[in-house]
Amino acid sequence: MVPIVVSASAARVARATLPLAELSSGSIRQAPDGWHVVLRIEGVQYHLWLKQAPELSAFYSAELPLDSDYEIRAHAAHRLWRVINGRPPGPSFYQLSAQRRQRLALALRAFDGHVDGASYREIAEVLFDRKRIAERSWKTHELRSLIIRLVQDGLALISDGYRALLRPPSRKK
To answer: What is the pLDDT of residues 27-60, one digit of tens each?
Structure first.
């Protein structure tokens, strides 16, 4: 999650206020670079970074750096603005499709089987119907290639590839 930079302002820009009074002690912490706040509003979690200690009576504004995460930050800031103004947050910026979630689950299950010492055929029999494999030669079966790719995908996920799940695919134009 990319935090939103929030700063206090003396000017009254908006009527909505951040619900800082409702924070628990575990939701806010001081760090060398400022204050880190986790707000949970309407079932959505927002990560905020404040330059100064939070003030209950202050009015806040969002500062969005024009970096590679700008689009994600702008969407998150808009969702936060909607919620503190009593509106529904709107859709998430990026969600995995059901097909992608299913493939990721299969990849992790295949990798777990591989780590436990199961053969590719045994993994296939557990993940897919055993009847699909029984009559055909395993060496030329299409499931063999799929299982090998799933194990490789699982290894990639375990080896830091899971971070790619946090970002949407590149929209290069």
So the answer is: 888 889 888 888 877 777 788 888 888 777 777 7
d(CA 122, CA 105): 17
Cα–chain-centroid distance for residue 2? 10
Cβ(34)–Cβ(52) under 8 Å?
A: yes
For the chain, domain boundaries: 4-84, 98-166
The predicted structure's pLDDT at residue 10:
44
β-pairing, 44-50 vs 4-9, is: parallel
What 8-state DSSP symbol labels residue 144? Answer: H
Residue whose structure tokens are 């029999």: 125
d(CA 137, CA 139) in angstroms, rounded, equals 6
- Cβ atoms of 2 and 74 within 8 Å: the answer is no
Is this model's pTM higher than 0.70 or not?
Answer: no
How many Å separate Cα 166 from the centre of its chain? 4
| Long-range contact pairs involving 164-171 (C-beta distance under 8 Å, separation at least 24) | 165/96, 165/104, 166/1, 167/72, 167/94, 168/93, 168/94
Query: Using one digit for the tens of pLDDT, what is the confidence trace for 4-33?
Result: 666 555 444 445 566 666 665 558 888 898
**CA dihedral over 48, 53, 58, 59, signed as positive or negative:** negative
